[in-house]
């Protein structure tokens, strides 16, 4: 009886977790692709440069792996080809366990991206989660007879359910890629107050690790005794730290970060001019012209890019982009929006609008958000 209950517990947990993990990543396939690229760069540096050849296919691999998680999770729950599905899940989890252990042990990738931006796990937490999954899968492999005994299932019906889950996953991922994620868990989501997120939510507290006579001593305040040697400073409440630490905007005249939080600003983000969708700028330019010709309410158009000044100067003439432009870090722009180009609307530093280049808003829609 106990073994049967354990088997069914593992069945629900493993199936549900794989579906949840896959859907979270399908919600943001570009974000998952960015995480895969990070792994490829690490492996190319540590093992072989052949891993760099996978970077152009990161988006396809993102969709494939995330879809596989959902489909296998559904197949497990409906008990479709149970033995085959369990072994596929086991080897997939074994592969993820290697990745998370390598990241944790060598401190290579500080966030595995297991649950996208929705749930952040440390490398060791990710590894522990995968070890637990492996144990549960071993339980299922040795007790799968108890799952079959749940009742006779029609293979045609369960096969149809699995096929529908495959189609659903592909539709969700393609739509999310061509637009923005359905659910935005990033710091720059609509409603986010960027200046506030750049400040700690509470005073940060630290412990100071000092050394004296070959022994480490911990202090809650920095010691005045100069005979101690400083080793490191450990934050006690890192969750209260700033959620955004790297948002900076500049040009040749200096830093313009604070200016971005003044009044209404329509930001056109161009991460990489070499990969930007040129055709979308016809519609973006019409919007910018409307913004400039209608000053009530006043909205200041701004272009921000991570490309070099020389590259962007050539690019803006090619697409007839006339708004003033500034520079920001490429990683920041990838976090702010997945599209290239994409648009954000700030009202005194609060994100009130966010659009993929496939969803360029009308002038009326933009104005309605800042009235």
Automatic annotation (TrEMBL):
One of its GO terms (cellular component) is membrane. Residues 9-142 form the Methylamine utilisation protein MauE domain. GO terms for biological process: methylamine metabolic process. Pfam families: MauE. This is BT_3928 family protein. It is a multi-pass membrane protein. It is found in: Membrane. The keyword Hydrolase does not apply. The chain crosses the membrane at residues 9-26, 57-78, 85-106, 126-144, 156-177. InterPro entries: Methylamine_util_MauE (IPR009908). Keywords: Membrane, Transmembrane, Transmembrane helix.
């Amino acid at each position: 009886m106990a073994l049967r209950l354990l088997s069914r517990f593992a069945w629900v947990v493993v199936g549900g977790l794989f579906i949840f993990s896959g859907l979270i990543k399908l919600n943001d396939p570009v974000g998952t692709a960015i995480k895969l690229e990070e792994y490829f760069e690490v492996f190319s540096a540590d093992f072989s440069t052949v891993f760099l050849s996978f970077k152009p296919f990161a988006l396809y691999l993102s969709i494939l792996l995330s879809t596989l998680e959902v489909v296998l999770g559904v197949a497990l729950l409906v008990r479709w080809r149970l033995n085959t599905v369990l072994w596929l899940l086991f080897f997939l989890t074994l592969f993820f366990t290697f990745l998370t252990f390598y990241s944790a042990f060598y401190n290579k990738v500080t966030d595995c991206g297991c649950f996208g931006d929705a749930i952040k796990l440390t490398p060791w937490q990710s590894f522990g989660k995968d070890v637990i999954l492996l144990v549960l899968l071993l339980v299922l492999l040795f007790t799968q007879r108890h799952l079959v005994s749940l009742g006779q299932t029609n293979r045609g019906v369960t096969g149809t359910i699995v096929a529908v889950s495959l189609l659903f996953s592909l539709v969700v991922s393609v739509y999310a890629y061509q637009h923005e994620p359905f659910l935005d868990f990033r710091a720059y989501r609509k409603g986010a107050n960027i200046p506030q997120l750049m400040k700690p939510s509470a005073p940060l507290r630290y412990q100071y690790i000092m050394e004296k006579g070959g022994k480490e001593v911990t202090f809650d305040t920095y010691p005045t005794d100069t005979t101690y040697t400083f080793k490191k400073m450990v934050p006690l409440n890192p969750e209260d730290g700033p959620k955004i630490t790297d948002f900076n905007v500049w040009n040749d005249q200096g830093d313009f970060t604070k200016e971005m939080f003044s009044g209404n600003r329509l930001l056109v983000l161009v991460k990489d001019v070499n990969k930007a969708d040129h055709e979308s700028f016809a519609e973006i330019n019409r919007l910018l012209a409307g913004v400039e010709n209608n000053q009530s309410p006043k909205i200041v158009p701004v272009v921000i890019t991570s490309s070099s000044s020389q590259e962007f100067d050539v690019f803006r003439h090619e697409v007839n982009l006339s708004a003033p432009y500034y520079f920001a870090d490429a990683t920041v722009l990838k976090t702010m929006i997945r599209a290239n180009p994409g648009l954000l609307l700030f009202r005194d530093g609060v994100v009130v609008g966010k659009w993929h280049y496939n969803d360029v808003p009308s002038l009326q829609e933009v104005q309605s958000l800042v009235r």
